[in-house]
Design brief:
The radius of gyration is 28 Å and the shape is globular. Helix 6 (162-172) crosses helix 10 (288-305) and helix 12 packs across helix 14. A seven-stranded parallel β-sheet has the order 3-4-2-5-6-1-7, with helices on both faces. It has a six-stranded parallel β-sheet with strand order 8-15-14-10-13-11, with helices on both faces. The chain has 21 helices and 15 strands. It has two domains: 139-256 and 271-415, 3-Layer(aba) Sandwich (Rossmann fold); 426-616, Rossmann fold (3-Layer(aba) Sandwich). By secondary structure, the chain is α/β, with parallel strands linked by helices. The structure holds adenosine-5'-triphosphate. It comes from Hypoxylon rubiginosum. This is ATP-dependent RNA helicase mrh-4. Keywords: ATP-binding, Helicase, Hydrolase, Nucleotide-binding.
């Protein structure tokens, strides 16, 4: 209210102030009030997490027990046509939406007493709220989700084709014993397959029979398989039922037989397959690294399940892309970056004419301002033939949530209990860069952190060998990546900057070692490779550490199973970045450690609150 005192007050404000104590009086803010109130509150970042991801916008939606949901109607006639008085149940301490925006708690118990646990929560979220970067998720929904998840114990409970189940254990999750579906897989796979124990909503299909789904779950929780398995299942089922493909198979077999005849003089080439240049499944991801990563999983499935998957990104030559798109043997599934696919669709609109399944992975990035026009243009062109649209992300910003509510009001929201929380087995430490011996030298603090990580006891290895620690360092600006990497290399650390200009070979070599879940060893005599731009190393050599310096976008979604340590060189701008950066460690229930370098300019209150939320295992706001 402070701005009102110092600013000029218009007559309407005075009027409102004088009579605001009259019960039920509602005044509309005048222009001056509106202006001052927008000035007084911090402008929220455009990357603000949604606090209501699990809530569907479908007005006919039903809750998990099948009852039609009650919707509160605002407006002058909102109270009409109600059969139950809209009074609060005094025995309930939880309300569907929080008045204070916190976890659905109204702050008082059934007898009207203030809840002490909530009072303890208050300071926890203050700085995060001031920044407007994180919000809460209804915890009531999470517990219901949990109970539904316990029904599914193994991949055998999914109504997947036997070949897909075989491929899972033989190729995709090989070398893993006793694998069980993860929470998001337990929720999403049956629902996308339209299984009986999947989540159903009364109005999930539109008039064209299209279904829309949102898969939202914490980082490293197996979202890729959660959408890939049902999509490939649908692809194979549709293929089996497609008369054009059956006719082609018959023609192909006949032609093969004819060509084996000794006196055959006819054509030696085959007619193109019905799917040539017209794939049925498209998976969009924001970066070339993710194309490779998701492509690896799809290819592993394709050997056993028999479908043709192709990868399109800037790292792959146009010749190879054209050859696989127009291969006479056809194409089933494409994993691509939006820019590349869009430019291909511009030159050949038929590419998007047969798409039945479109998956938009890292949906918050792909619907953010940079990508949004391209992503939506692909979406619009694929809509006529589309049967399933799947949006997938570990973080749902309010902007994406609002977009979904307006464009896909019937989207089925599949969320896990730990959405927007940092994996529980990740701990966060802080280094005060202001203090001795760093004196605000972040490079020195970062180097020191890497040295102390390298000294931590590692796995048992042979004589003459060292257990290698793979460390990710995150900076806020792209330009800093090379600068920090050069400093580390100069000081004897094997480091590489991950950005657009990094030589592709070096980048993929380093990424491969970070994404491998198996332990890495190095010889005691190993020396770090100097990057071409960096001066030669002149100090101690650190053979048992490998470092990638990256920004958030470069590392999004990368499955860095081998990483246990993440250094946040800069305090992330938003809690969304906190989630993605710390999410590179502690994947699939592994242990992980984050270290924040807190300088004089950084918001320590945010760091403290993130640590507190992590300690409590709660979602960030
Ligand atoms: N049921 C399972 N059991 C064990 N490991 C699994 C299972 N499902 C997937 N994985 C493995 O877990 C790792 C993480 O999976 P994935 O990359 O799909 O996570 P994600 O949820 O997409 O993460 P992010 O949000 O960071 O992109 C992968 O290496 C994958 O092979």
């Amino acid at each position: 209210m402070r701005p009102f005192r110092s600013a000029p007050i218009c007559p309407s404000c005075l009027f409102a102030t004088a009579i605001r104590n009259i019960p039920n009086f509602v005044s509309r803010p005048c222009a001056a009030q509106k202006f001052l109130s927008t000035r007084a509150t911090a402008t929220p970042s455009r990357m603000v997490l949604s606090h209501d991801v699990a809530r569907s916008s479908n007005r006919d939606a039903r809750d998990h027990s099948g009852k039609k949901r009650q919707w509160k109607s605002a407006g002058p006639f909102g109270g009409m046509n109600q059969t139950v008085a809209p009074t609060r149940d005094p025995t309930r301490s939880w309300t569907p939406r929080a008045r204070d925006g916190r976890d659905g708690r109204d702050g008082r118990d059934g007898r009207g007493k203030r809840d002490n646990t909530q009072r303890k929560d208050e300071p926890r979220t203050k700085a995060m709220k001031m920044r407007g970067s994180l919000a809460t998720i209804p915890y009531g929904h999470r517990s219901r989700t949990k109970s539904r998840m316990t029904e599914i114990e193994s991949f055998d409970n999914f109504e997947l084709l036997p070949s897909i189940k075989d491929a899972l254990s033989r190729d995709v999750l090989k070398d893993m014993v006793g694998i069980r579906p993860t929470p998001i897989q337990r929720i999403a796979v049956p629902t996308l397959l339209d299984q009986k124990n999947g989540r159903r909503s009364s109005r999930t299909e539109d008039s064209k029979g299209r279904k829309e789904f949102l898969l939202a779950a914490e980082t490293g929780s197996g979202k890729t398989l959660a959408y890939l398995l049902p999509v490939v299942n649908a692809l194979k089922k549709a293929e089996a039922a497609d008369p054009a493909i059956a006719a082609y198979r018959e023609y192909f077999n006949k032609q093969m037989e004819a060509m084996k005849e000794p006196g055959y003089t006819g054509p030696r080439e085959f007619d193109p397959h019905p799917t040539t240049g017209r794939p049925k499944v498209i998976i969009l991801v924001p970066t070339a690294e993710l194309v490779t990563q998701v492509g690896r999983v799809a290819k592993a499935l394709s050997h056993e399940v028999k479908f043709k998957a192709s990868l399109f990104s800037a790292n792959i030559s146009a010749k190879v892309i054209n050859a696989s798109m127009y291969s006479p043997t056809g194409i089933d599934l494409i994993i691509a970056t939006p820019h590349l696919l869009s430019s291909m669709a511009d030159s050949d609109p038929n590419i998007l004419s047969r798409v039945s399944h479109l998956v938009i992975d890292e949906a918050d990035s792909l619907f953010d301002r940079g990508f949004s026009p391209i992503t939506t243009s692909i979406l619009d062109r694929a809509l006529p033939s589309m049967k399933q649209l799947v949006l997938c992300s570990a973080t749902i910003p309010k902007r994406l949530d609002n977009y979904m509510r307006s464009q896909f009001p019937d989207i089925v929201r599949l969320t896990t209990p730990n959405l927007h929380a940092i994996p529980r087995r990740v701990i966060l430490g802080v280094i005060d860069v202001n203090k001795h011996p760093y004196h605000n030298n972040k490079n020195l603090a970062c180097l020191d952190a890497i040295y102390s990580i390298s000294k931590e006891p590692g796995r048992q290895v042979d004589d003459g060998e060292l257990d290698v620690k793979r460390i990710m360092v995150f900076v806020n600006e792209r330009e800093q990546t090379q600068e920090v990497a050069d400093y580390l290399v100069t000081n004897g650390v094997k480091a590489i900057a991950l950005h657009r200009d990094t030589p592709e070979k070096r980048q993929s070599e380093m990424l491969d070692s970070f994404t491998a879940g198996v332990p890495m060893t190095a010889s005691i005599n190993d020396k770090p490779d100097a990057s071409p731009t960096s001066p030669p190393s002149r100090r101690r050599i650190l053979p048992n550490a490998q470092v990638i310096v990256a920004t958030d976008l470069a590392s999004r979604g990368i499955d860095t199973l081998g990483v246990r340590h993440v250094i946040l060189y800069d305090v992330p701008h938003t809690t969304i970045d906190f989630i993605h950066r710390l999410g590179r460690a502690g994947r699939m229930g592994r242990r992980g450690r984050g270290i924040v370098l807190a300088g004089s300019q950084d918001h320590r209150d945010i760091i403290a609150e993130v640590r507190e939320s992590m300690f409590r295992g709660q979602a960030l706001l």
